[in-house]
From TrEMBL:
Lineage: Bacteria, Bacillati, Actinomycetota, Actinomycetes, Pseudonocardiales
Keyword Ligase: no
Stretches of the chain forming a coiled coil according to its record: none
Domain of life from the UniProt record: Bacteria
Matching PANTHER family: BCDNA.GH03377
Protein name as it appears in the record: Oxidoreductase
Record-annotated GFO/IDH/MocA-like oxidoreductase domain positions: 136-264
Length: 379
């Protein structure tokens, strides 16, 4: 069986999904049957579709004009659930871009619909397909760093005005009264959160307590600088710190703390360091190819929806948190002009690293720009 695949979305990161699907199509592993987008697809997106593929503005029309086995949902986050439900009703297996859903109620609904329909639901956390995952897990299980005492993740990037102008939902907490939950931890550094939870072995477990601190250097609804601590029964805490107001771009990483050392994994470049020893890691597995192998041969999913349960709890906590705290003007500096303008918080790069090193929230580091931005919830 050669499964047919359709892609919901053609712009932004959906273009990456089209490229990967076209590569599998050219190898004869799938048939890329079509794509849809409410906007006119770019010439580049059109060129990625094979001759005869369907292009529409409406997902229902795309599903009616094709016979897909798999639907890739790569649209704005607040549209994931309704489009996933539409695809499931048409009998499709799913690959849903991150964040797959925006709260635990939606998570439960999507999981139940997929389970009742006998459909697989893969999520777009590419780091879950990394060969570093079993390497890091084996090092932990073999006691190479002693007892794990906590897991952190850190990310510091520059994001310019053009980044926030790319879509109508960028930098928004809600659109038309509907939650979107864009923000440092829930979108650009969602991989940092989800990957740390995966390494911790608590990806499928609801945290007992979640504390979040949201700040913003620029005049947007959502946070561009944030941290969180997720606490679990019988497992170490996970602490994540991130900013989009960095002084320089840095490779994000997961840091595993142990009583006898640390493991550092730069999850975008798959560089794994245990103590001072760097380990070779094989190339990552493509998640669409893995989904095809799961359907055809029963290969286990690398990024199943179930493995995003704790991450979704964090998204929900960010959604329900107080509005992000504006950082004091004295601690924010504008750099460049026009679409290249970006904002810098001096010292924030080091603050992100220190939070990861100490498993601490920003407010616990007595930074001069922190305030009452923390929300802690218990389950």
């Amino acid at each position: 069986m050669t499964p047919e695949v359709v892609v919901f979305g053609t712009a932004g990161y959906a273009g990456q999904h089209l490229r990967r699907a076209r590569a599998l199509h050219d190898r004869g592993e799938i048939v890329l049957a079509g794509a849809c987008d409410i906007r006119e697809p770019s010439e580049e997106a059109r060129a990625l579709l094979p001759e005869g593929a369907v292009i529409t503005q409406d997902a229902a029309e795309l599903l009616a004009r094709t016979t897909p086995d798999i639907a890739v949902v790569a649209t704005p986050p607040h549209t994931h659930l309704p489009l996933a439900k539409l695809a499931l009703a048409a009998g499709c297996h799913l690959l849903v871009e991150k964040p797959p859903v925006l709260d635990l109620a939606a998570f439960g609904e999507l999981a139940e619909l997929a389970r009742n329909g006998g459909r697989a639901c893969q999520t777009g956390f590419q780091s879950f397909g990394s060969a570093a995952v079993p390497v890091v897990r084996a090092a932990i299980e073999n006691g190479e760093i002693g007892t794990v005492t906590g897991i952190a993740a850190a990310g510091a990037w520059i994001r310019r005005d053009r980044y926030f102008a790319r879509t109508g939902w960028a930098g928004r907490r809600r659109v038309g009264g509907q939650p979107v939950v864009d923000g440092a931890l829930t979108n650009p550094f969602a991989h940092a959160v989800a990957t740390a939870l995966l390494v911790n072995g608590t990806a499928e477990v609801l945290p007992e307590r979640t504390a979040v601190e949201l700040y913003r250097a620029r005049d947007i609804e959502s946070d561009d600088t944030a941290c969180a601590r997720l606490s679990f029964a019988g497992a170490p805490d996970v602490v994540v710190a991130a900013t989009l107001a960095a002084e320089a771009d840095h490779e994000p990483y997961v840091l595993v703390h142990g009583t006898e050392g640390r493991i550092r994994w730069h999850y975008k470049t798959d560089l794994v360091t245990i103590h001072d020893r760097q380990l070779p890691v094989a190339p990552p597995r493509d998640l669409l190819a893995n989904l095809v192998a799961h359907i055809r041969d029963g290969e286990p999913l690398l990024a199943p929806l179930a493995a995003t349960r704790a991450f979704t709890a964090l998204v929900e906590a960010v959604r329900d948190a107080p509005e992000p705290l504006p950082l004091p003007a004295a601690w924010v500096r504008a750099v460049d002009t026009g679409p290249e303008r970006h904002f810098v918080v001096p010292g924030v790069d080091r603050a992100v690293d220190t939070a990861a090193e100490r498993l601490a929230l920003f407010s616990e580091l007595t930074l001069p720009w922190t305030g009452a931005a923390s929300l802690e919830r218990e389950r």
